[in-house]
Design brief:
Largest sheet: 9 strands, antiparallel
Order of helices and strands: HEEEEEEEEEEEEEEEEEEE
Distance between the termini: 94 Å
Shape: elongated
Low-confidence stretches: 1-39, 119-130
Number of strands: 19
Structural class: mainly beta
Length: about 230
């Protein structure tokens, strides 16, 4: 059989076309994880109805949005005003001005958002791995509890649980990046941990600086807390 002289040009054209295809940018994976961050970031925290939303913006190009432990990798798209970020499932965060936004989650109604803190207003010492703030107060309900650290007139870690029925005092707690721990005068192990995430107090509805978890012996109690002015 005589070889076809049309075969070589055809193969050459296909090879050149494949080589000229642009490289595809990796998309977020199925678990919603964002690609590695290579640009300057700006972190903003919003209160959107009943949800606290942490958004990390990379300009108008992309945003990583964390809501109740779920991560949404979003990309920017053209908007008539503000900046609009969407993911492949139809979830949207649309910023409006410097401190407002609208959150749209798939299958749910829009939520109006209000900025409650930007990255520059983080709880001192917790965001950068430094020591916890020097003076702090936390509380929770059901059952009611209160914990204070180095407040005026009450040095050390002072804890009241079960609506004040039981009191624990740790005269010299160990201070770390996430809180305080030590042994109370009666031998009970006590630890107050904090996490730099805005926290809404159940009793008052007030938005406080951080989530708090109190461990007293085998018990674990959850609540919110505030850094106290020196």
């Amino acid at each position: 059989m005589r070889p076809s002289f049309f075969l070589v040009p055809t193969v050459l054209v296909v090879a050149l076309a494949a080589a000229c295809q642009p490289e595809k940018t990796p998309a977020a994976d199925a678990a919603g994880q964002a690609p590695a961050v290579t640009a300057a970031e700006q972190e903003t925290l919003y209160r959107c109805g009943d949800k606290t939303v942490q958004a990390t913006f990379r300009g108008d190009d992309a945003a990583t949005v964390v809501i109740e432990g779920r991560t949404f990798a979003m990309t920017g798209e053209e908007a008539a005003s503000g900046a609009r970020y969407v993911d492949t499932r139809g979830n949207v965060l649309w910023t409006k001005g410097s401190d407002e936004a609208v959150l749209t989650l798939q299958g749910e109604q829009d939520r109006a958002c209000r900025q409650i803190r930007d990255g520059s207003q983080a709880v001192a010492g917790v965001a950068d791995g430094g020591p916890a703030p020097s003076s702090f107060q936390a509380s929770g309900s059901e059952p009611g509890w209160l914990a204070t650290v180095d407040v005026p007139g009450q040095p050390g870690l002072h804890v009241e649980v079960d609506y004040g029925q039981t009191v624990y005092d740790v005269p010299a707690p160990t201070q770390g990046p996430d809180g305080w721990a030590g042994t109370a005068t009666d031998g009970t192990l006590v630890k107050l941990s904090i996490q730099r995430v805005p926290c809404q107090a159940l009793a008052s509805g007030e938005m406080l600086d951080a989530k708090a978890m109190l461990a007293v012996g085998a018990r674990q109690l959850h609540g919110c807390g505030n850094v106290l002015a020196p």
